[in-house]
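Incident log, structure service

09:12 report received: a user says their structure output differs between two submissions of the same chain.
09:20 pulled the input from the user's history:
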Amino acid sequence: MHKATLILALLPITLLAQTPPPATRPATRPAATRPLPPGELLDSLLKPPSAAGQPLQPIQGGPLPDATSGKAAVAPNAPQLNVLREGTYVVDRVGRLTRSHDGQTAEFTFDADGKALKDPPMIILPNLKLMQMENAVQGSSRDLKFRITGMVTEYKGRNHVLLEKAVVVPDVVQQF
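09:34 re-ran on a clean worker, output below:
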């Protein structure tokens, strides 16, 4: 009887070991869908669905007036000036590094070049060139002039400049 109990106890284990596991496959797509032909699949990947986001529309209109000119300027009867269009480059312009009226942002105040004489200051976008200019001003005991080159951007009625080049202009420039 001892042997019969052992056989009965092992019977369920051997039956489980002999039955194959159920055939399962990982589901990669719902069972109701059919595979798309290659042409349709490519079209569905290249054409965004109609519910996708739409590209931003460009801002219409001509150049906007600079927010710091005209009635917003400190000087009385200051002329109204337009901002430069985004993507314009300022090339080898001389001026000084200044702080905005709230002291939070750096601005480049242009020196008169004998041409326009009416360039409002541009906010300098933070980058390594601005940091080099600030370090030069802090390490100097005189008012420094810089010659800059950079790309102009527009934002809320002000021009900003992303500096590509900034060089300290020496005090004495010899001309022959």
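09:41 both user submissions now match this output. Likely a transient worker issue. Closing.
09:42 reviewer note: The mean pLDDT is 77. Residues 10 and 132 are 83 Å apart (CA to CA).
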